Amino acid sequence: MTYATQPEGSHYIAGSYAEDTAGTDLPVIFPGDGSTIATLHEATPDIVDRALAAAKAAQPAWAALRGVERGRILLRAAQIIRERNRDLSILETMDTGKPLQETLVADAASAAEALEYFGGLAGAITGEHIPVGEDFVYTRREALGVTVGIGAWNYPTQIAAWKAAPSLACGNTMVFKPSETTPLCALKLAEILTEAGAPPGVFNVVQGAGTVGAQLIEDGRVAKVSLTGSVPTGKKVYAAAAQHIKSVTMELGGKSPLIVFDDADLDDAVSGAINGNFYSTGQICSNGTRVFVQSGIKERFLERLAERMKGIRIGDVLDEATNIGPMVSARQREIVQGFLAKGQEEGARLVTGGGVPEGAGFWIEPAVFADVTDEMTIAREEIFGPVMSVLDFETEVEVLERANGTDYGLSAGVFTRDLARGHRMAAALQAGTCWINTYNLTPVEAPFGGVKMSGVGRENGWAAIEHWSAPKSVYVATGPCEAPF
Ligand code: NDP
After folding, report:
1. ∠275-183-240 over CA atoms, to 5°?
2. Nearest Cα residue to 79 out of 49, 24, 120
3. pTM to 2 decimal places
4. 77-88: b or e for each residue (b if 16 or more CB lie within 10 Å)?
5. Atom 34, ligand 1: which residue's CA is nearest?
6. What's the pLDDT band for 3 if we cut at 50, 70, 90?
7. 257-436 and 11-253+454-472 share a CATH fold
8. Could you identify the atom of ligand 1 that is nearest to the CA of residue 230?
9. What distance in Å separates the CA atoms of residue 482 and residue 485, rounded to the nearest whole number?
C-alpha cells in the first residue's frame, strides 16, 4: 500500500493536515488482529473553531463559482479516486476490517460514483419560473452555507462522499466528523479534493467522539447537519439542531424485513438473504435481518442457505478470497454476542454459526436463527452484526402487517415470481427503499433514506440536491405597486 496508516495529521483544515496534540489520543485499531495502526488526536475546541472558520471563509466564493466549475473539481476527484482505488480500498480494509474483496468494489468506488453523479448535476441545479398573471416569480436554488456531516463507522469513505458530493455540488462547504472508530478514510477524501482543485476550506475533517459532533452542531456558523448513525444518536442530534432550527438529514438504523414467498426463485432468495445479512459482516443499516419465509418454501430455503454458508471464507482480510471479515471493534462483537445469547434464551433455534474463531481480532461466525417470532429481542432490535433471523409466515396480509410492525422504516425486500404481488407489497411496505427480487443495491441515482424512526430526508438522487439547498422565491412585479392608502 502506498498510503501509510498513520496520517500526516489528525485533522484536515483549509487544504492541509492539522494537528493539536493537546487533544485526547485516539488509537486506530485494525479489527483483523487488534493491533494499533495509527494514533490520532481528538479535536480540541481550537481545532473545531479553525475548521468552521475555514469552511465559513471559503463558502461565498465556492458558491459563486458556476455549477460546472464546482462539478469539474468533483469529477476530477472521482477520477483520482478511481486511479487509486486499490490503495484506498486497502486503507478502508485496515480502518474497518471489511475484506478487500468488498472494499475494492463497494467503498472508494461508491465515493467516486457520488462525485461523478453530483459533479455532473452541479451545473444543472436551477430554479423555476412561475407565472402569476402579468407578474412572475422565479426561484433561485441557493446553497445553505456551512454544513456538517457526521458519520458512522461501517462505510467511512462512502458516508463522507455521500454527504460531501451533494453538499459541495450545491455550493456549500463542509466540516465532516468521522466516527472515532474509523477516522482514516475521510482524510483521504479531503486530500484528494484539494488535489482535484477544491479551494482550501471547502471540505474539512475533524476527529473526535460524539462531544466533538455536538460542538459542531451547536455552532452558530453551521446551517445544516447530516448524520449517519443510530436512532439514539439521531434523537440527540435532531434535538440539538432543533434548538437552532437547523436543517437536518438523518440516516439512522433499521430492522428491515426481507420477505420470501413460496413462488420465489430459491437461489435468488437465498442470495438476497446472504447479501442482506452478511455483507460487511452484517454491519449495514439497510440489512434485511427479519427474513420472513412462507411455510411452503421454508425447509428448502434453510437447507439451501446451510449449503451456501459452506462458501464462507473467514480469514486474512487482505486476501481477496476472504468474504467475511471481523466486527469493527471488540465492543461491537460484545453487543452481537449479547444478542446471540438472548436469541437462544428466548427460544430461537440457532441453525448455524455464532462461534468465535480462535486468534486475535474481533471475529465472529455468521449466525442463522430459525423459528424466530415477532416478540423476540433479535426480531425487534437492530443488532448490526452477522445475525439472520428466519421467521415463518402463511399469507400476504399477515406478513405485511408483521413486516410493518416496527418503529423502523429504512428498507424492505420481496422475493416472488408474481410481479403484481411484488409491486403491491412494495407500495404497502413502510420503508424508504424496497427491493423486488434483489436486496441491498443502493445506486447513487436513487434516493436513499428512511421513514418512521429510520430517518429524515434523503441522500442520493435529485432528492439530495433538495436537502442540501434551499429555494428562494423572487417576486417580480411588472405593473404599479398598489397600496390601500
Ligand atoms: P452512532 O450513532 O454511535 O454514531 C454515529 C456518529 O455520531 C459517530 O460519528 C458518533 O461519534 C457521533 N455521535 C455520537 N453522539 C453524538 C452527539 N451527541 N452529537 C453528535 N454526534 C454524535 O452510530 P455507529 O457509529 O455505531 O453506527 C452504527 C449505526 O449507524 C447503526 O444504527 C446503523 O443502522 C446506522 N447507520 C445508518 C445508515 C443509514 O444510511 N441509514 C448507514 C450506516 C449506519 P463517535 O462514535 O465517534 O463517538
Report:
1. 90
2. 120
3. 0.97
4. bbbbbbebbeeb
5. 253
6. confident
7. no
8. 32
9. 9
Pocket test for ligand 1, best of 233, 235, 339 (most atoms within 8 A of CB): 233
152 lines ligand 1 (CB under 6 A): yes
Q: What confidence tens digit (pLDDT) does each residue in 101-135 have?
A: 999 999 999 999 999 999 999 999 999 999 999 99
CA distance 162 to 303: 38
Q: Give the whole-angstrom CA distance, residue 321 versus residue 244.
A: 50
Any ligand 1 atom below 6 A from CB of 40: no
Using one digit for the tens of pLDDT, what is the confidence trace for 146-161? 999 999 999 999 999 9
- Amino acid making up residue 59: Q
Q: Kindly state which CATH superfamily the domain 11-253+454-472 is placed in.
A: Aldehyde Dehydrogenase; Chain A, domain 1 (3.40.605.10)
Task: Lay out the sheet containing 469-476: strands in order across.
Answer: 129-132, 135-143, 469-476
Cell numbers representing residue 403 in the block: 413486516
Ligand 1 center from residue 225 Cα (angstroms): 13
**Separation of CA 157 and ligand 1 centre (Å):** 14
| Domain 257-436 part of CATH 3.40.309.10 | yes
- Interhelix angle 45-64/210-218, rounded to 10 degrees, is 50
Q: Is 149 in the pocket of ligand 1 (CB under 6 A)?
A: no
Structural contact between residues 469 and 125, judged by C-beta atoms closer than 8 angstroms: yes
Q: Which of 42, 113, 251, 382 is catalytic?
A: 251
CB 151 near ligand 1, within 6 Å: yes
Can you name the residues that pair with 448 across neighbouring β-strands?
459
Percentage of residues in the chain having pLDDT higher than 90: 99
Atom of ligand 1 lying closest to residue 155 CA: 43
Find out whether the beta carbon of 179 lies less than 6 Å from any atom of ligand 1: yes
Residue 1, pLDDT > 70, answer: no
**251 is an active site residue:** yes
Q: Where are the domains of the chain?
A: 11-253+454-472, 257-436
- C-alpha cell read off for 213: 459532533
> Is the beta carbon of 382 within 6 A of some atom in ligand 1?
yes
Q: Is the pLDDT of residue 89 over 90?
A: yes
pLDDT at 268 over 70: yes
Residue 350: in which H helix or E strand, if any?
strand 349-352
CA of 67 to the centre of ligand 1 (A): 31
